[in-house]
Amino acid sequence: MLRARSHLYLALANLLWAGNFAFGATLSSQVEPVSLSFFRWALAALPLVLLAWAIERPDWRAAAREWRWHLLQSVLGLSGYALLLYSALGTTGAVTASVVSAINPAAIALAAALVLRERLTRIQGSASGSRSPA
């Protein structure tokens, strides 16, 4: 039962992720990327906070003390990614954008190895490392 639920959650995550590309490509010709990104996060903020509260039980006081770091991460990571994605979807298709996005983890690992001279482990460097055991 737990394995079936895990597979359902993984499929749902992929469906929502892919839906974001298709939805963004459809709306990018009608809505500015800044507005699209703003409304995406404005609508998602309350459900995400509720999920964090229910599942993770975060230490809100500690999070408030680190607000500058959280703001920076939000602007560069969450909002920046969405803004660049919706800008890109104005010039390319959803499939192309999703393929480029799927390459990101490998590109980050390669950049870390080349620029920061980090050593990749066998699991990080192999395609089979991303699969779970049967």
From TrEMBL:
Belongs to the EamA transporter family. InterPro entries: AA-Vitamin_Transporters (IPR050638), EamA_dom (IPR000620), EmrE-like (IPR037185). The keyword Magnesium does not apply. It comes from Agromyces marinus. This is EamA domain-containing protein. Pfam families: EamA. It is found in: Membrane. It is a multi-pass membrane protein. Residues 7-124 form the EamA domain. The chain crosses the membrane at residues 34-55, 67-89, 95-116. The keyword RNA-binding does not apply. Keywords: Membrane, Transmembrane, Transmembrane helix.
